[in-house]
Fold:
Amino acid sequence: MFPTRALAVAAAATTALALSACGSDSLSEGGATTSAAPTASASASGPDQALVAKLPEKIKSAGTIVVGTDATYQPNEYLDTDGKTVIGMDVDLFDAVMAKFGVKTEWVPSAFDAIILGVQSGKYDIGVSSFTINPERLEQATMVSYFTAGTQWVTQKGNPKAVDPDNACGKTVGVQKGTIQADIDLPARNKTCTDAGKPEINVLVDADQAKVTAAVQSGKADAMLVDLPPAISAVDLTGGSLELLGEQYDSAPYGYVLKKEDTEFGEAIAEALEQLKTEGTYDEILAKWKAEGGATDDFAVNPQVS
Structure:
């Protein structure tokens, strides 16, 4: 149907459960956190000197890689209870990847739709924020696949507004700014509605996914679209006041975002992922975050996607 988007959604948001520091536009480099390897198994094996030799000189000299991320997408990347430390599945996995290179990671919260530009400008060495790989992004960056996910609809428990994902014309649907759900999926659905002489979907867009989730909880939105892992997390964190609607669709790979010219570094990252998969660390990290369903063994630079 439609290509999935590039991110995972934020945690849910009742007043009691909302993250205290979740507005992606308000996050700044002042909240950057630096971490080393996340797991004993990843760090115990030590750096691979062949991989270390493939580090870009800037990163090798600094001993740290600067990572742009939208830290509002639980369980993939989000702020811990201290409001400063970026944690999540993506964080643990990429920290383990960088342990293979012997460098630390500095996680810098950013607005999602500013990360690729930040990588292009050199503000970030890499973008790690549940980016779905698609042709448009491959025109702008080198991407390394490491996970798969599809788009999932979410409603209030019991679907009181009787939302039908295949006929949501006239419904109010929340979505996060800058995502493929917002930029491609819902516009295509709206064209189907108007072509059939039906009212458009009322699309509520916010830069902060936690606010999108809160809109569904409060009834301001009838449903939302988001990747499956954060959709499941939102249901869990709201105590079951939300539920998944239908099945996920258009599963596609997530990719790390590098500058176009950084293909050699991308190949080295893919090799590090393969090592983590062989050692079992890759699957351990996904299991910790209940994300086993997105596991892959296809770690590729600029994979062919539709």
Q: What stands out?
A: The chain has eleven helices and twelve strands. Confidence is low (pLDDT under 50) at residues 1-30, 37-44. The longest strand covers residues 242-258. Residues 24-149+251-294 form a domain with the D-Maltodextrin-Binding Protein; domain 2 fold (CATH 3.40.190.10).
